[in-house]
Design goal:
Elements (H helix, E strand, L loop, with lengths): L1 H23 L4 H19 L1 H29 L6 H39 L13 H20 L1
Helix pairs in contact: 1-2, 1-5, 2-3, 2-4, 3-4, 4-5
């Protein structure tokens, strides 16, 4: 029951995230905190204090890794390739799917973003190296897919 309610709330938060990121190009800190808090609460309620601590540590490690990748990209290209809100979202998502779910999250996010870019190109929108595309909605889709996949495999 806790998992279903948490997943439903996560879907709602993900929809809000997608809407805000598409309209304003940002992912608010309060939204990332809500997603992280919900992930930590779910881990704690379903697995106890050790699961909550593990989820917090995995989220922190994921956030640190992507913050470093963001800095490295900027150092070499002098352009921000990944927004800080996206980095914070990945840290929050890490409390849900952990390090093991991260590859699926990123794969689904990048594939859906590429499909979207392809559809935009086919629709006549000119895309080039300066074109900006909000990545938050795709990360949210990746999170929901990865979490659903983890839940499916753990129950079977």
């Amino acid at each position: 029951m806790v998992i279903a309610a948490s997943f439903g709330l996560l879907c709602l938060l993900s929809a809000i995230l997608a809407w805000i990121d598409i309209r304003h190009g940002i992912i608010p800190d309060w939204l990332n905190l809500a997603i992280a808090g919900l992930g930590l609460s779910t881990a704690f309620l379903t697995g106890g204090p050790s699961s909550g601590l593990e989820a917090a540590c995995e989220g922190a490690v994921i956030g640190a890794i992507f913050w470093l990748l963001r800095r490295l990209y900027f150092t070499f290209r002098k352009v921000q390739g990944l927004g800080l809100g996206d980095v914070k979202f990945l840290a929050a998502a890490g409390t849900w799917v952990g390090v093991t779910g991260l590859p699926v999250l990123l794969l689904v996010a990048t594939l859906t973003a590429l499909i979207c870019a392809g559809v935009m190109q086919l629709a006549g929108r000119q895309l080039n190296s300066q074109t900006s595309l909000s990545f938050g909605p795709f990360l949210a889709i990746g999170l929901l897919f990865a979490l659903g996949l983890q839940q499916h495999w753990s129950c079977c």
